[in-house]
Write a structure and sequence with these properties.
Blueprint lengths: L1 E6 L4 E4 L19 H10 L8 E5 L4 E4 L3 E14 L2 E2 L6 E3 L4 E17 L33 E3 L7 H8 L5 E3 L16 E6 L8 H9 L2 E3 L7 E5 L14 E2 L4 E3 L7 E3 L6 E2 L3 E5 L4 H5 L6 E6 L2 H27 L9
Parallel strand pairs: 11-19
Antiparallel strand pairs: 1-4, 1-9, 2-3, 3-8, 4-8, 5-6, 5-7, 5-8, 7-10, 11-18, 12-13, 12-19, 13-16, 14-17, 15-16, 15-18
Amino acid sequence: MSLRVERPGLLTSIQDLGRYGYQKYGVIVSGAMDSISLRIANLLVGNQEKEAVLEMTLVGASFIAEQDLLIAVTGGDMLVAIDEKTLPLWRPVFVKKGSQLRFQSSLTGCRTYLAVAGGFAVDEVMESKSTYLRGEIGGYKGRRLQTGDIINCGIFVSTPILEQLRNSLSDSFSATKWHVNPETFINLKEKVIRVIKGGEFELFTKESQEHFFNGEFQITPNSDRMGFRLQGAPLQMEEPVELISEPVTNGTIQVPKDGNPIVLLADRQTTGGYPKFAQVVTVDLPLLAQKKPGEKIRFKEISLEEAEQLYLRQEKQLEKLKAGLQLKALKPASSAIKL
């Protein structure tokens, strides 16, 4: 069972939730930029949440399904068609063997995720299937997808949803009438990113601190999976300070000498020596990852306790989703899954 790549898109790679446990050796974590969309896509097709999916950026790829597939598409609102018919997002879809899946440009959001039941049958490198593009490890031959690549899919067990969709097939694909409401987890139109203060926040001038929370920052074109470079009024320290390199994480906001912040993301380095101005809270990392170059964002300070409560609330919503999907497998309905 496999997918054949007809057109690779702008940047399409295999990603899971990341390569953890090896940062002490200098190994990059990588993984999906938008982990929530990945987790939901996997749940919709009956996979484990951490299973590898395809991550497409801005302009999608085109594939031929060389076997019947159960798929789900989540994340950015990318136009998707199967044999010229629009494919609905955020739900399970049964795709007939020989069908063409064409992903076009993102209308809203930046990254779109394609999960297949059974996942993708690629070797794990240090316990992860994620592609680290600069290091050329993981995923499909350690690189982005190219025309002619054939990606093998894993074996999956038939489920009630799969059989219902197979039995209702009248064309190239059939989809459930119900879907997950994405705004429960990520509002792609939201511009405010919540943060907590970083370790070196107090070393910056009061004017810089105020501007960070009152001004706007634009995501520059030289942003990538390693980090988003932001353009705005430069952030200045009270006086130069030499810092020792320390561990950094997903969402760490560093300020280099030019004063323009860099938000570290999935392919971030393991340590950094620039001052850490703030930290994006976990629940807003998927939202940030869906922003396109040229878009403007704002930052809002919250407390660590608030960030923890937001995270716990999101995890409870995911648990509700799992329970709802189990019910749908037993008794399909026409409404969206509401949380």
